[in-house]
Design brief:
alpha/beta
């Protein structure tokens, strides 16, 4: 992984967005402003992220915070290691069993270390997940409890596989512009106007739902929380390109 010493502030997609939008929330305290902008970066979806990042490179310097202030604005967002996780070079090459899939431990109650290791070992036997940068296991950073969604505020680039080189000159495609709501509309349409050849097929709706997931699921991650430890099974969370949960499986 590239050292963050060689990575200037403002050189990652989330950072470009925060800098470009920093002045839009002047009445909000810096800590809350950082978190709100990080949440917005996920919520706006891929197409809007591409546009915002591309536009940030075209803004006059006067519309961005002073470059001397960039570190003080951005450093509290995440640690140096978490910045490295956001680098494109940290994504695993295609062909790996778990292409950059994150394992997130959010419960660090006393006595849970053994349960966590058992879950991890069991999954690794099937999926060879154990690549250091894939496993987020640090009580000081990820003690989120049941609020696992906070990870989107820290490494959205990794979860959505967003690379700055692609975004800085990027334009959203028609496919990128689709939203999960549009995919749900396809299901409603299929329910109203089913294919005549599938009219008698009781599995038609099931197939439509599968299509929804195929079209709308952007990625997934494993979550090891208190419920997972008690059940003995990690949670798999499927999400769209706005970070909205489309389904879970234990």
């Amino acid at each position: 992984m590239t050292s963050t010493e060689k990575m200037p502030w403002g050189s990652l997609p989330l950072e470009r967005y925060v800098l470009a939008q920093w002045a839009s929330l002047p009445s909000i305290a810096p800590d809350h402003r950082r978190r709100q902008l990080a949440q917005q970066f996920t919520a706006i979806g891929h197409s809007a992220r591409v546009l915002h990042v591309a536009l940030s490179f075209r803004k006059p310097d006067a519309e961005l915070p002073l470059q001397a202030d960039w570190e003080s604005i951005l450093a509290p967002l995440r640690t140096d290691f978490q910045r490295q996780l956001a680098l494109e070079s940290s994504f695993q090459p295609e062909g790996f069993t778990c292409f950059g899939i994150i394992w997130l431990r959010t419960c660090y109650d006393e006595g849970t270390d053994g349960a966590h290791q058992r879950l991890l070992n069991e999954l690794n036997e099937e999926m060879a997940l154990e690549v250091d940068q894939n496993i987020l296991d640090d009580a000081a950073l990820y003690n989120y409890g049941d609020d696992w969604r906070r990870i989107f505020e820290v490494v959205p680039e990794r979860l959505f596989k967003e690379a700055l080189d692609e975004m800085s000159e990027g334009r959203p495609t028609e496919l990128d512009a689709r939203t999960a709501e549009e995919y749900r509309a396809l299901i409603r349409e299929e329910k109203r106007n089913p294919d005549i050849n599938a009219a008698a097929d009781t599995k038609a709706l099931s197939r439509a739902t599968v299509k929804l997931h195929f079209w709308a699921v952007h990625n997934y991650l494993f979550v090891a929380d208190k419920v997972a430890f008690e059940a003995g099974r990690a949670l798999i969370v499927f999400f769209d390109d706005c970070g909205r949960t489309l389904g879970t499986k234990a």
